[in-house]
Amino acid sequence: MKYLLFIISLITIFSCKEEKQENIVFFEDFNAENLDKTYWNYELGNGCPNLCGWGNNERQFYTKDNVSLKDGNLVITATKDSTKYYSGRITTKDKVQFTYGTVEVKAKLPKGHGLWPAIWMLGSDISEIGWPASGEIDIMEYVGKTPHEIHT
After folding, report:
1. I want to staple 115 with a disulfide (CB 3.0 to 4.6 A). Which of 64, 75, 87, 144 is the partner?
2. Residue 7 phi, psi dihedral angles, 5° rounding
């Protein structure tokens, strides 16, 4: 019986795989005064003339003024004047790409009718073949009018 227990112990020890050390390929804590343009792009306007409404009939106009960094947080503020809606949109297009791995995001999301914050990944070949052909992985989409539902 001692030998059986010893053999089982050895099998257990040698069959345990060593955990792989993760290799971080991109990290952003937004702990700066301005967006780091080494990694980030501002998407500006409303998508016209090539993709008016950004392909989803979005009604807002994206500006740099609606994107800021504060206390280690990325802040995207939606505003409205008498005729238009404004917001911010940033991407890592042509600056960060990877094929496998884990993506971790911490976000505080607003609630309210008409708000739809989202975090997603698009294929690196989007400039050549367009969306949706390049693929899309939704990390998270949050419909502001239903604050207890998160879509992935």
Report:
1. 144
2. -65, -45
